[in-house]
Design brief:
By secondary structure, this protein is mainly alpha-helical. The protein has a domain of 98 residues. It is built from 3 helices and no strands. It is rod-shaped.
Length: 154
Amino acid sequence: MARTPDFAKTMQDMMANFPIDTSSMQEAMKSQSLLGEKLARVALTAAERSTEISARWAKDSITRMGELAAVKEEPSEYAKAMSDFASASAEMMAEHMAAYAEVAKKVQMDTVDLMLTAGKDIASDAQKVADKVAQDNQAVVKKASTAATAAAAK
């Protein structure tokens, strides 16, 4: 009766003859994790700063609303209070939007800096891996050539 060949053993033998260096994968995972941590730190710092700006804006607005809600003696004072509130609100908006723009600019600069650094690190790591693979392949070829020469001499 015909038996099905055991390809599992053949694959194990084949993979045993191809040494795999997992250190490069481990280093890549470490690099990715560090980059992710740094990017998360940038995002969280921006979120914290944006929250501070929002809270300050809300507090300023509430303070101005208190001034607007105060009882006035003359009807014209209500119009002036409303005008002052609108003017102050526009000024606050410009000030706080500029603060948000500064946060966004800092996030952008930090992100670009991180990406450039990561790109340089990746290129350096890729060069190291390529050099190691070339050296390993040369050693294997030299070993195979020596073995073939020795077998032919017998």
